[in-house]
């Protein structure tokens, strides 16, 4: 029976769920959004279709993100979402799949149990957990089994995980609830305060992707932004500059830099020497914000590399770890 069920690696992100199937690679990449009918409790849409409904639903339908800050905030909806994605990936399976899910490095036992229970209820035969920074390092093709220090800064939608890894495990790590979603919130607040205009989460994300930056740009970019005027209550369009976005995102960017600094301070001297030699690796969708690598490099004096396929790193690492499920038992992952 050992080989019959599929092995699936899932990056259960606050913003995106990415699934990797052993032998096939990345097979699914969808927003972690679920649209539910409030009255009947029926799931109406999951993923891309549900994301289009965010902020645009009538009273009886709610489009929500069941994960907040990297952990499950709505257990029932997470279970339904996982079930949907597992069925989409596996079709009708005869044998339940073994699933490896990555979690932020500083989650509590209760939060871990919630992830395991949700996956088991959604149809998993066995659930394994792997820490996000370790999965990200494996996905970035770093040999983590050697006795030398590697520093990973993984910025997702809900959490920023920073870890120094050696001999296949985290030596020093921290997890911040400042990541992609928080940056969107800061943009919403800034536009409201400076331009007296309210914008939605999706618009804030578009601004972040197109002109967001945390380091001065050579050329100031601009973008037309639509929202609702706070004074008149009518729709309005304004021009927003990338220099304004740098101002809006200065505070969260500095928090990430300070967290990197505090992890370096707690790193044993031998490993710190390895890091200054090998540099810091950045992974996750949040690290793509313009200038964050430059900012960290400037403040720490250590070379910073943004990993190839940084958005997929955690999922790819989880997938590679599937090949070593038995080796991982009791070492880099918890088996239940």
Structure description:
With 336 residues, the chain is α+β, with helices and mostly antiparallel strands. The protein folds into three domains: 7-134 and 314-335, Nucleotidyltransferase, domain 5; 146-178 and 253-307, Nucleotidyltransferase, domain 5 (2-Layer Sandwich), CATH 3.30.420; 180-248, Actin, Chain A, domain 4. The protein is built from twelve helices and 19 strands. The protein has helices at 48-51, 75-90, 109-121, 132-139, 180-195, 201-211, 242-248, 250-265, 269-278, 292-300, 313-322, 325-328, and strands at residues 7-12, 16-21, 25-31, 34-37, 43-46, 61-64, 67-68, 71-72, 98-103, 126-131, 150-155, 160-166, 169-176, 197-198, 222-229, 235-241, 280-283, 304-306, 333-335. Helix 2 (75-90) crosses helix 3, helix 4 packs across helix 11 and helix 8 (250-265) packs across helix 10. The radius of gyration is 21 Å and the shape is flat.
Keywords:
Nucleotidyltransferase, domain 5, Actin, Chain A, domain 4, 6-stranded mixed sheet, disordered C terminus, alpha+beta, 3 domains, 336 residues, 5-stranded mixed sheet
Summary?
With 336 residues, this protein is α+β, with helices and mostly antiparallel strands. It has helices spanning 48-51, 75-90, 109-121, 132-139, 180-195, 201-211, 242-248, 250-265, 269-278, 292-300, 313-322, 325-328; strands at 7-12, 16-21, 25-31, 34-37, 43-46, 61-64, 67-68, 71-72, 98-103, 126-131, 150-155, 160-166, 169-176, 197-198, 222-229, 235-241, 280-283, 304-306, 333-335. The chain folds into 3 domains: 7-134 and 314-335, ATPase, nucleotide binding domain (Nucleotidyltransferase, domain 5), CATH 3.30.420.40; 146-178 and 253-307, ATPase, nucleotide binding domain (Nucleotidyltransferase, domain 5, 2-Layer Sandwich); 180-248, ATPase, substrate binding domain, subdomain 4 (Actin, Chain A, domain 4, Alpha-Beta Complex).
